């Protein structure tokens, strides 16, 4: 039988491999690794909060400041700085036309052209427009930001992506709109005529909910909420992963990923990376620089696993202007492969970097940013940040919990605001010490900290105990976070124990994840002690469900 603790609960700590918890916030990014930032003064750099380096020679820069102002500088090719002219500038100039707008995300093309979404879901475009990639119905260069509202007026855009000369946006309701250059079907309209205004990408995506988009040079990708990947556009190097080299004018599902749930997709110039919910990476497409990480330079038209140590991957990075790939593991290690400063690195190489952004600053050609950089401020504290600092602070607390002989210092009013359980239990309680014996110190401390931070920092094995608490207190959001954390620690040895915990605590998402993991690793899982000691009813249900999905077919 599975190991039980004193309360009769499953003791998953005996079978869960410890996994280093990752920090939810990054250290302040060193933007100075991009040469163009040397044009900014030290005082100006202190104000930077978001930044994007782009252009064919990484000679253009857009950044936002702590005051929500937007500045640009650089060569201004095709008016891509949005200043109303094509004059280069070696000093930062304020982009007044977007004054007061907060940037949620942005992307850029090869012209270059810019597509930007605000935190309110509006879309603005400017720059090169020879192929209608600005979506304003013309082919005239856009010298100033233009608000794109055609077919998007009642939509909130949450993600943007640019190929060399085409554009994609993703709305909050899971719809994808595309426009621009369409010589290979990259707009997904079914033809090869350029698309001058936003058009919803339908076909196979008609009834799907898209959660992530990406563009290669002349291809497009979408991940839907079921974990499937749909692709369209140019396929001369196999970058669509369909097992062929023919272009695809409408979305087509990557059938070779059947049974694999993809969370994110990233596109290089002519290669594709995907990250699965089990922390694995698959790659396909062009490989002349080793950008697939397979150890050779042969193109692949089917998804191929990328082996990056045993730690799970939590982030993948690529950019349509480069042949470089990067990934970050849960343990914080950053790997790079592909074209790295002129060298062809055919296998993932462990770097000394702490961020995938650094790979592109130091080794990509051109040295652009693969995403909008976010720079955390060091000084100013928001209300949320101030509350985080007050957790477990004996100097300001008016209540302390005694758990396993240790005190945890908290504030009654915050607990009552944040948790229904405390709202009632502390209503008439004038005590300043509450003893807690039902849960362990790490678990209860993590719960109280969550009420201050909205996040959890526990190892996967301890998160099972927190899942128990979240179920007991009916904290549904916390329960969801616990399930996400527990997933990160799954392996063949503990899969059955985690499945048992998921069933016990009615964690349906985790149960489905564990079941799929067991099916995908059935041979090894069925040889573990956990499977041999499996609860009779659970085993009966597992075999029945596995039979229904064809796990035991020859």
From TrEMBL:
SUPFAM superfamilies in the cross-refs: POZ domain (SSF54695), RCC1/BLIP-II (SSF50985)
InterPro entries per the UniProt record, alphabetical: BTB/POZ_dom (IPR000210), RCC1/BLIP-II (IPR009091), Reg_chr_condens (IPR000408), Signaling_Regulatory_Domain (IPR051625), SKP1/BTB/POZ_sf (IPR011333)
Major subcellular site: cytoplasm
Location(s) in or outside the cell: Cytoplasmic vesicle, Secretory vesicle, Acrosome
Keywords for the protein's UniProt record, in alphabetical order: Cytoplasmic vesicle, Repeat
Xref: CDD domains: BACK_RCBTB2, BTB_POZ_RCBTB2_CHC1L
GO cellular component: acrosomal vesicle
RCC repeat extents: 121-173, 174-226, 227-278, 279-330
Name this polypeptide is given: RCC1 and BTB domain-containing protein 2
Species of provenance: Bison bison bison (North American plains bison)
Organism placement in taxonomy: Eukaryota, Metazoa, Chordata, Craniata, Vertebrata
């Amino acid at each position: 039988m599975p190991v039980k603790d004193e309360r009769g609960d499953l003791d998953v700590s005996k079978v869960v491999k410890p996994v280093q918890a990752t920090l939810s916030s990054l250290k302040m990014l060193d933007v100075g690794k991009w040469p163009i930032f040397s044009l900014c003064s030290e005082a100006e750099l202190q104000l930077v909060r978001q930044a994007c380096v782009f252009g064919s020679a990484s000679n253009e820069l857009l950044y936002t400041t702590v005051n929500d102002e937007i500045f640009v500088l650089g060569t201004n090719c095709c008016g891509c700085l949005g200043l109303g002219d094509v004059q280069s500038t070696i000093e930062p100039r304020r982009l007044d036309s977007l004054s007061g707008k907060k940037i949620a995300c942005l992307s850029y093309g090869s012209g270059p052209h810019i597509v930007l979404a605000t935190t309110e879901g509006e879309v603005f475009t400017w720059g090169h427009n020879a192929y209608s990639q600005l979506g304003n119905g013309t082919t005239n260069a856009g010298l100033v930001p233009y608000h794109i509202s055609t077919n998007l007026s009642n939509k909130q855009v949450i993600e943007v992506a640019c190929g060399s000369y085409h554009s994609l946006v993703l709305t909050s309701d899971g719809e994808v709109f595309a426009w621009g250059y369409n010589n290979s079907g990259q707009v997904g309209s079914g033809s090869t005529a350029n698309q001058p205004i936003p058009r919803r990408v339908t076909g196979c995506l008609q009834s799907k909910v898209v959660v992530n988009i990406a563009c290669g040079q002349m291809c497009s990708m979408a991940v839907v909420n079921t974990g499937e990947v749909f692709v369209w556009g140019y396929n001369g190097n196999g970058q669509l992963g369909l097992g062929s080299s023919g272009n695809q004018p409408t979305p087509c599902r990557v059938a070779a990923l059947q049974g694999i749930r993809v969370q994110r997709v990233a596109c290089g110039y002519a290669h594709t990376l995907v990250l699965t919910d089990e922390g694995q990476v698959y790659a396909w497409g062009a490989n002349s620089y080793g950008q697939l990480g397979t150890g050779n330079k042969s193109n692949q038209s089917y998804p191929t696993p990328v082996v990056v140590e045993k730690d799970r991957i939590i982030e993948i990075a690529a950019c349509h202007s480069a042949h470089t790939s990067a990934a970050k593991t849960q343990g914080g290690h950053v790997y790079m492969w592909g074209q790295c400063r002129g060298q062809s690195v055919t296998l993932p190489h462990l770097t000394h970097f702490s961020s995938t952004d650094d790979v592109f600053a130091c080794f990509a050609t051109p040295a652009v940013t693969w995403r909008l950089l976010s720079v955390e401020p060091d000084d100013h504290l928001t209300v949320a940040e101030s509350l985080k600092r007050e957790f477990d602070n004996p100097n300001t607390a008016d209540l302390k919990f005694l758990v396993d002989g240790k005190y945890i210092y908290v504030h009654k009013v915050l607990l009552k605001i944040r948790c229904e359980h405390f709202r009632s239990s502390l209503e008439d309680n004038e005590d300043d010490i509450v003893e807690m014996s039902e849960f362990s110190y790490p678990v209860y401390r993590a719960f109280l900290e969550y009420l201050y931070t909205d996040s959890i920092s526990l190892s996967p094995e301890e998160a099972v105990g927190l899942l128990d608490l979240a179920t007991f207190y009916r904290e549904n959001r916390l329960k969801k976070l616990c399930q996400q954390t527990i997933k990160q620690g799954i392996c063949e040895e503990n899969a059955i124990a985690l499945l048992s915990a998921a069933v016990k605590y009615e964690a349906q998402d985790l149960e489905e994840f564990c079941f799929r993991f067991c099916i995908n690793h059935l041979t090894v899982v069925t040889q573990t002690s956990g499977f041999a000691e499996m609860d009779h009813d659970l085993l009966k249900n597992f075999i029945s469900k596995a039979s229904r999905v064809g796990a035991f077919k020859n």
